[in-house]
Amino acid sequence: MTVPCITFIGGGNMCEAILSGLLKTGHPTSHVRVSEPFDQRQAFLREKYGIDVFGDNNEAVTGATGTVSTAPVDVVVLAVKPQVVGEVVRGIAKSLQSTQPLVISIVAGVAIKDFARWIHHDSSATARVPLVRLMPNTPALVGEGAAGMYADADVSDEQKKQTEYVVCNIAKEYFWVDSESGVDAVCAVSGSGPAYFFLVIEAMEKAGVELGLSADVAKRLAAQTALGAARMVLTSEDDVATLRRKVTSPNGTTHAAIEKMIEEKVPEGVQSGMLACRARCTTLSEEFGNL
């Protein structure tokens, strides 16, 4: 795979996480551009990373007036808020039609059919722009992300490699799903998943304080325990249920805690929450598709 020229539309935290990962692994500054509406953020990205940062989305796609990057665009990453994505995509539709890059959306809750409709709203457009939906999560900001991806029928094998080239810089675990509904399932598991663990760690910290520990000690013990447990899941040959049983001695301290959590329906609560997350993804897709 040749090194792709990548344009980011939106210069926020997730853009910066991907951008910094790319540059750290040797991606040339001549093959990356960012469009960002706020002057202060533009200056920050330009100074920190030595890349072209534009205030105009179309110039970022085409590379017009660029002082560093003159390569034709291969990949456009949409990293804007869902509330404005329809307006943004319609605004760059002609540039996308003329350059025909792979478009990767990290915008939650917006379906590929709506991106296609916004890009191809001009009936004279014949060639289809290939589209990928990418669902990363916030641990990407510290290099510990997880992600799921779905490609439409116009995405080539080479463009799938380009997607993985982008994703591997922010996610330790990433997978292609077979249907777009699978992106909503990814959202329920890993996209929104960090908040579930924050809730658990928050509860463990509070309980630790009630048991006599300082807030800082309780937080750090809970967080490291979560990290260690996750590492065991990813490296052990045992499944999760077996790992749990191995640390739950009959009538022991862990057994008492687990039995109480089951009595309080903690597992059912987690599962119900994930189903609610997926349902909300569907609702948001309908709402944002009407923008």
From TrEMBL:
InterPro entries noted in UniProt: 6-PGluconate_DH-like_C_sf, NAD(P)-bd_dom_sf, P5C_Rdtase_cat_N, P5CR_dimer, Pyrroline-COOH_reductase
**Residue ranges of the Pyrroline-5-carboxylate reductase dimerisation domain?**
180-282
Which controlled-vocabulary keywords does the entry list? NADP, Oxidoreductase
The similarity comment for this entry is: Belongs to the pyrroline-5-carboxylate reductase family.
What does the entry give for GO biological process?
A: L-proline biosynthetic process
* Superkingdom per UniProt: Eukaryota
| Protein name, entry field | Pyrroline-5-carboxylate reductase
Q: Name one Pfam family in it.
A: F420_oxidored
Record-listed NADPH binding positions = 57
Q: Which GO terms describe its molecular function?
A: pyrroline-5-carboxylate reductase activity
- Binding of NADP(+): at which residues? 9-14, 79-82
Domain Pyrroline-5-carboxylate reductase catalytic N-terminal positions: 6-109
